[in-house]
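Input structure tokens:
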């Protein structure tokens, strides 16, 4: 099935709904945009990055028949059969011969001559690349392969995605935002720190955010002046070592909220704006955990977000941006909106749920988009999981169950070769839990969590006599 959303996306990016797209799931493109930017220290590479790099498989359900997806590794064959049984028409797949778990799919593709040749062939017959986000790496891939990118330049995408851009745009357009300051230089940071000091003295909290932070990385909530001063000194020190006074940060008052929201609109090459959807975002410590569908909003709140979407979309078009734009927003404890916390100039997690939502989540349904952490002792083939979870998986006839929309992240961190007794690795199962009421969705979610824990335990050889 090629949903309405993918057709609209093609039209927005290329001018025609029949375009042949090559999807590239280069998640956390922010890491590329952040290169050379002075901000907060980031943690080094870990198993979480291995899992994130396999989120490339999400693109399978965004692409339609006649499209293509570049992947780091071949999907589980039983998982593909399961998707086809559900009615998904799968795209062509370009799988790199040798993937590096530490690399994004773009970096792997750049090292794969066969994939580069195949991309060039697709480009020669009119295909275009639709990346999760566009950095200089995706531009290099397109140039080396000889296939166009259906996107603005990396420079435009990076500029629009910056949290500094979002704050300045909100101020320019009169959109409500928390008190705060954009810091593109050490002088601006010095002034922001002094202003933040006054908030802390008043018993409030502040938050420092990297301009290109993502998934909880590059964010520090500060409750006292001592911590603020330490961060301030550290950033000055790093800038001195780098030999310049540029920084990329925002400093904001930490405000109370009742809920997080994520809404998405698509900006066409012609400047037209289409509002795609709004979802309630489930987050913890700035880390995205999933979505609730439908978002619990009043008609007035929905109307306000629609109005802001058109306002922002028009302004982004003026700045040369087109394609998907996701916006993080918040509801305060009194029901008021902060309609613009930050703009994501790339695909969002909710983008990859669009075809599922169109096909299987009706107006009478509710859904939870979830990521289930797994602690595994050995690789878990999809067939084994399916047998253990059969009665809980999504059944189109019932209209309920768990629809798995990425299986690569389950075994992404497994070591090659035979499992070592006592050794464990982390995995993650992504899926959408659908039922006919919020209570039934929550109950099903609980049961899925319990069953998955038992399945994971069985791979560790625990609980056996």
């Amino acid at each position: 099935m090629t949903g309405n959303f993918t057709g609209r996306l093609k039209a927005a990016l290329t001018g025609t709904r029949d375009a042949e797209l090559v999807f590239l799931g280069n998640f956390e493109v922010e890491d590329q945009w952040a290169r050379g930017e002075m901000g907060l220290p980031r943690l080094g590479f870990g198993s979480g990055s291995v899992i994130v790099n396999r989120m490339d498989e999400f693109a399978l359900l965004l692409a339609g028949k006649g499209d293509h997806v570049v992947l780091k590794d071949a999907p589980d064959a039983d998982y593909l059969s399961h998707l086809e049984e559900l009615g998904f028409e799968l795209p062509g797949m370009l799988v790199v011969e040798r993937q590096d778990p530490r690399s994004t799919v773009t970096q792997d593709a750049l090292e794969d001559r066969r994939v580069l040749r195949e991309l060039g062939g697709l480009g020669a017959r009119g295909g275009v690349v639709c990346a999760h986000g566009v950095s200089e790496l995706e531009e290099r891939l397109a140039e080396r392969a000889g296939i166009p990118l259906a996107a603005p330049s990396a420079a435009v995408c990076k500029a629009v995605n910056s949290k500094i851009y979002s704050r300045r745009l909100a101020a320019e357009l009169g959109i409500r935002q928390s008190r705060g300051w954009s810091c593109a230089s050490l002088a601006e940071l010095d002034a922001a720190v002094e202003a933040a000091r006054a908030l802390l003295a008043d018993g409030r909290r502040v938050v420092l955010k990297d301009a290109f932070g993502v998934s909880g990385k590059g964010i520090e909530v500060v409750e006292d002046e001592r911590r603020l001063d330490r961060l301030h000194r550290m950033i000055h020190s790093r800038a001195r070592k780098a030999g310049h006074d540029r920084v990329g940060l925002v400093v904001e008052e930490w405000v109370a909220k009742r809920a997080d929201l994520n809404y998405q609109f698509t900006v066409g090459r012609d400047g037209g704006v289409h509002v795609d959807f709004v979802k309630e975002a489930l987050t913890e410590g700035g880390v995205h955990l999933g979505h609730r569908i439908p978002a619990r909003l009043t008609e007035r709140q929905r109307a306000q977000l629609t109005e802001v979407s058109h306002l922002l979309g028009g302004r982004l078009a003026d700045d040369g941006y087109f394609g998907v734009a996701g916006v993080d927003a918040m509801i305060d404890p009194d029901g008021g909106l902060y309609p613009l916390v930050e703009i994501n100039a790339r695909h969002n997690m909710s983008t990859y749920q669009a075809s599922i939502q169109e096909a299987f989540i009706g107006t009478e349904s509710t859904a939870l988009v979830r990521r289930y952490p797994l602690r595994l002792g050995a690789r878990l083939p999809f067939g084994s999981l399916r047998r253990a979870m059969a009665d809980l998986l999504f059944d189109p006839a019932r209209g309920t169950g768990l629809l798995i929309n990425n299986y690569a992240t389950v075994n992404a961190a497994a070591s090659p070769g035979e499992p070592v007794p006592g050794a464990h690795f982390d995995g993650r199962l992504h899926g959408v839990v659908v039922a006919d009421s919020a209570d039934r969705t929550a109950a099903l979610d609980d049961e899925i969590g319990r069953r998955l824990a038992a399945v994971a335990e069985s791979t560790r050889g625990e609980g056996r006599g």
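The radius of gyration is 22 Å. Residues 438-459 form the longest helix (22 residues).
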